[in-house]
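== Sequence entry ==
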Amino acid sequence: MNLLSVEEIAKRFGERTLFADVTFGLDQGQKMALVAKNGEGKTTLLEMLSGDTNPDTGNIVWRNGISVGYLRQDNPFKEFKTVKEVLYGSDNDFVRALNSYEFAIENPNDDDAMQKALNLMDASKAWDYEAKIDKLLSIFGMDSLGKNQSIDLLSGGQKKRIALIKLIVDEPDVFILDEPTNHLDISMIEWLEEFLSGQNITLFMVTHDRYFLTRVCNQILELDNGSGYKYSGDYEYFLEKKAEREENLSAEIGKAKNLYRKEIEWMRRMPKARATKAKSREDRFYDTEKKAKQKINKDELQLSIKAERLGGKIVELHHVKKSFDNLKIVDDFNYTFKKGDKIGIAGKNGVGKTTFLNILMGLEEVDSGKVITGETVQFGYLSLIHI
């Protein structure tokens, strides 16, 4: 089911065109990442989707009845005073049911109000709402804050986490997220990855965390040199197809330059008063000139991967053999170290325990087989020093 249709939108600032003719759609359950170099219009596009600003031309159409939640980079809580007001101030079924229930408790003689409140609580499953908020506050390291804590006294990172919690409990139909992993530690990011990967979550986000993007998103929209390009696949697939696109564009520019050199001589020879056919050729000349003078921006798109973040691959040993003369350290040894493993190595003196550790660290070559280490793995090695 299509939730969003974006048709040929453009945005200009003065004489500068930020982007033009950008077209894409978002279906229910799709998770799309927006990637671009700095200054290409990522935040502007997010603001358009959220309704904060309008395109100069083109259309942005949301399906009727769709709720959209937007996680901003800046502080969205200027009208709130406390954490409680943020988390319980939303206009959703849960909060309406809770407010109705609180009113009924404060008016015990109003039986109709109590029955209505109980029905609303059951229908919206609001009984678990406060427990859900408390759980999220704990997950995002905010449980030590009192709910009457002033928002103004929170750090920028704490405000961003409260905004993320509020968005999750609001349960919008579509999440629009601007750098959601900023100010989160590894365990928080991993929880968010699992949550956003849910089948019923529809997502459009900007992130500079390549690992997070790859784990969560199945669609990529790139803004490049004022145009939009959509890719169905992960980040590695995007890089492959982007390289192909730039290679094809480079070939087209090369052909246009050759044609331009020929046509410019014709333009110089032709008189100002031209026949209809000549005028048509002149129009094609200007199209060719535009293509020939196009430049491919070779600046790299920078998406980072946090060095301390462990991926799924830690260390794998495949058919490893190592020996010194007649002493076999390992012989056709296979093992895959998993995240969270705690393994001890036991053996008599001289059987090769330290050699095995050096093999894991890449400090000792194996006789045969492979030792494969995950790209984000960093070793901390405390060796025995003889004094």
